[in-house]
């Protein structure tokens, strides 16, 4: 009887541990967001946001998760100071009035054993709209530097900037903007 109770308790504990959601903190040293947009029909121009934070929760047993990302709009870099100042101004990202961009989701879609897309809401310039991020290069491993479990992925989507109120220089600068994020998140 004691063996049965002990075995049952161990089995229940192991099952609960496997089924528990795990929280991860976004690693700011290995995460950045970016965009690219067609400029005058001539080339794709791009920029990076270098300050990204937030959390990711993954429940591998339930094949579900949550994502909460905050991007510091003032961290935008295009590597040209005058263009950076213009893009941070009122015609584009208006960083004084809207200091952050956010993406929040409580729906992570798995294909097999890995997350494949994240359905959520992007807030840009105070406007919140549904967005689906497609995930590629999704991996989980023990980080050899920290020894901690870490998820990594690259996520992409395409938005129409005018739907968020960013209408400057349309259509010379394309309405369609490709967004991406390279993300690593470390177990808490």
UniProtKB/TrEMBL annotation:
SMART domains: YceI. Residues 23-186 form the Lipid/polyisoprenoid-binding YceI-like domain. It holds the Pfam family YceI. Gene3D superfamilies: Lipid/polyisoprenoid-binding, YceI-like. It comes from the Bacteria. Residues 1-19 form the signal peptide. Keywords: Signal. The keyword Methyltransferase does not apply. PANTHER family: PROTEIN YCEI. This is Polyisoprenoid-binding protein YceI. It comes from Gulbenkiania mobilis.
């Amino acid at each position: 009887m004691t063996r049965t109770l002990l075995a049952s308790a161990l089995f229940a504990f192991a099952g609960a541990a496997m089924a528990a959601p795990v929280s991860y903190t976004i690693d700011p040293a290995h995460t950045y967001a970016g965009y690219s947009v067609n400029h005058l029909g001539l080339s794709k121009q791009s920029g990076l946001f270098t300050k990204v934070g937030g959390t990711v929760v993954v429940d591998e047993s339930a094949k579900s998760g949550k994502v909460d990302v905050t991007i510091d709009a003032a961290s935008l870099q295009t590597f040209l100071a005058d263009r950076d100042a213009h893009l941070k101004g009122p015609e584009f990202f208006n960083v004084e009035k809207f200091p952050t961009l956010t993406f929040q989701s409580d729906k992570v879609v798995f294909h097999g054993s890995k997350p494949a897309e994240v359905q959520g809401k992007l807030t840009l310039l105070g406007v919140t709209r549904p967005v689906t991020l497609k995930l590629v290069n999704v991996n989980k491993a023990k980080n050899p530097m920290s020894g901690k479990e870490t998820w990594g992925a690259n996520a992409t989507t395409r938005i129409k900037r005018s739907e968020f109120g960013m209408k400057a220089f349309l259509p010379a600068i394309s309405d369609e903007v490709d967004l991406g994020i390279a993300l690593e998140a470390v177990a808490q």
